[in-house]
Amino acid sequence: MSAVLELTLKIPRDEIAIAADDSVTLPYAKRQRSRQRLRLDLGGEARLVLPPRTRLEIGDHVCSGEGFRVLVRAAPEELSQARTSDTHLLARACYHLGNRHVALEVGPGWVQYEPDHVLDEMVRRLGLSVEAVSAPFSPERGAYHDHGHAADHRQGGGSAPTASAGPRQESEAPDAPEAVR
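Now predict its structure.
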């Protein structure tokens, strides 16, 4: 019985210089998990063991300690895709969907998100057409994903910060001396 390949290093797609030995095709939700068992596209098995909160992006490589490289691909998923040629309407739809902390992928004239009949109806009422599609899903990461926030504001894997309990008092400023707080 051979040992299961352990993938412990992520190489971002913009730092890749050599070809992968295999690939793995994952839906968005599984690309958000840093530890899991994988079935590689050529049939092998691997165990992904990355630091907590490490996210895989389409085109990244994950590597074993021995240098075996696996390319990360996106699996097609069932999505709602809203379309319009009116950029103002598209911006309004993105605003309202984002205000509900929905993961969104935005392209020229379209926005797509995980299917939800309530959201679909809201977007239709704004004036966009909505259809079910099967496509890879690579939503926006959010403004804070690379900035090392001290607190993880996500709940349930979302990427948008939650609202604060109220306006910050002057004495609560993050750089205020401890005696003032």
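The radius of gyration is 20 Å.
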